[in-house]
Every structure is written in structure tokens, then in C-alpha cells.
Amino acid sequence: MRTGSFGLATSALALALVALAPAVLVGCPENSCFLKICQGSSCRCSISSCSDGAAFDTTQNRCRCLKGYIPIAGQCLTPQAANAYCGVGRHYESGGCVADRCRPGDEIDQSTGYCVSREQVASNIGVAVGAGQKLGCPPDQELIVDGPTAACVPRSQTCARDEVWTGQVCAKVGQCPTGAIWDPALAQCVQYAQGSGDSGLMVHVGQWASANYGPNGGMGTSGFCGAFAKKPHSFGIVEGASAYVRITVMMSFPEGEIARGVVQAVTVFDASGNPVPPRGAAEVDAAARSIFSTLVQGGGRASAPTSSTTVRCAIVHAGKPQPVPAVGGL
Prior knowledge:
Keywords: Signal. The protein has two domains: 43 residues, no CATH class; 211 residues, no CATH class. Helix content is 18%, strand content 36%. The protein contains six helices and 25 strands. The strands form eleven sheets. The chain has a three-stranded antiparallel sheet with strand order 1-2-3, covered by helices on one side. The protein has a three-stranded mixed sheet with strand order 19-20-23, with no helix packed on it. Strands 22-21-24 form a three-stranded antiparallel sheet. The radius of gyration is 23 Å and the shape is globular.
């Protein structure tokens, strides 16, 4: 992270810089550049509050990702980190998270990310698929393979990390500048990080948590819930049944450093308050950690030593995959 303080611009430093350049400008719009140096009409930012992987663009007066870094989730990530953010079975491509591709007749195992044949899946779940048929689900549902199990789930439970459910489809969220992220509850970009003269990059962790996981007391975001809600077997939800789970995501930042932040998710059934099965709890915790890792990579200072949000996610097991016509469907 590029940090600095106005205290660096002492008289001695200013005199030294004047000797090197005709003009030295301290500060800039949005307080993201603490020390701007100009040679004629050409300017550069010497000290900024941009997150790791970003630099201050003096022509646009904002932080922008460096070459080789990808703007995603308000951060500048390496290609490897962007793929990890998209989660198992997906990768980053052409501006967003897209599903990995398998050869025709295969499905992605959401527990491993590997492609498996539908014949093997059918055998695992005890479904006989005849000639001219394939394993499938009704049009408004998605076939999800999760290790030795498979289920038909509503498409609303299958959104990618950078998508929201519109009521009909999973749609990509709006693109936001570095330091801002799309908040589904507000339907707009919200600024969660900004420059601070004394502390460098200040991250409003409560705002970030609300946009990424969901507002406290409300529904979880499609991008968060979709990472695990598509796996009803992990939560012990039988065919034709459904349940809401209540998740408390707790974040802490030792000494206020984002880079040292840790996150923990506690998941219970909303109706009873009983803990979900260990496999389901592990799925939720993994999703929370994966999203949190993007915040940690950006660095900066936390606006509070701890922050938490409690959200609800629906887990619906629509039914067991069944043989459908190889051309068309149910």
C-alpha cells in the first residue's frame, strides 16, 4: 500500500522537491494523493493512499489498477487472486466471473472444480438414464453436483460472486471504481475506502461488510449466499424441503491493520437457532473467508477494530435430478 502523511511535507522536503521540479502540489481532489509533483503539464503522484496494486492517476484524479492487476470487488487483484475470488467452478474472464467449461455431457463438481460425466453423477445418485436421455432439472432450476451428491436448486441460489438475482436471472453488478463496491441493498456503488492524511487508506469496514455479505438483520447478498446455498446436502436439507440459515460474520483487525484482519462465520438454522451440520458450516466459512481475502489484500487502516453483520440465506432443495430428453428438457 502506498501511504504517507502530511507531516512528510515539511519545509525541508518541500525545498528539496522545488529544486527538482517547477511545481509541487500537496493534496488533490478526494484526498487520495498526498504529494503531487508536476513538471510543466506532466504530473505524478509521489505519495498516495491507493491500495496495493493501484496507483493514483493524476489525469483522472483517482486510483487506478496497475498493469497486470484486475479491478474487481473494489480492489486491484492479480489474475490468480481474481480467479480465487470467483470461487470453485468459476474463473475471471472478460470483466467478470464466468463458469468453467466442460465438454458436452459433463458437469462441474462444485466441491472440487473438476469436470465429471453425467453418467457418473447419475450412477452416484442412483438414477437410471436411458438412450436419448440425460440427467437434468426443470428449466427454472440448476443441476448442481457436489461430490457424490447432486441436487436441483433454484437458479436464484447459483449466482456468482459478482452477480445479483433480479427475480428472473443472475445479473452482473454495476462496475465501481477502486475503493468502491456495488451494494445490492442500495442498488448503487458505495465508497468504502478513502484517503486519510494521517493514516493513508482508511477502510470503512462496516460499509464493506454490508455490501459484500448483506445488511445487518437483512438477507445475504446473492454473491455470498450463492457460494453455498446451491449445496443443500451440506446442510442436511432433503429433497423438496427448504430452510433459512442465519449467519453472523465477525471481522477483527489487530492494531487496526486491514492486512492482519481475520474473519469468522457462525451459522445456525434461523427457525431453531441450532447449528447447521459441520459440512454446511465449513461451506459458509469458506465463502466468508474467500470474500474477505480481497479486503485483506488491499491493505489500509480499519475504521473500527471489529465489525460484524448478521444475514439470512435461503437453502432450497427443489428435488433430485431426473432423466430428461437429451434435446430440450422437461
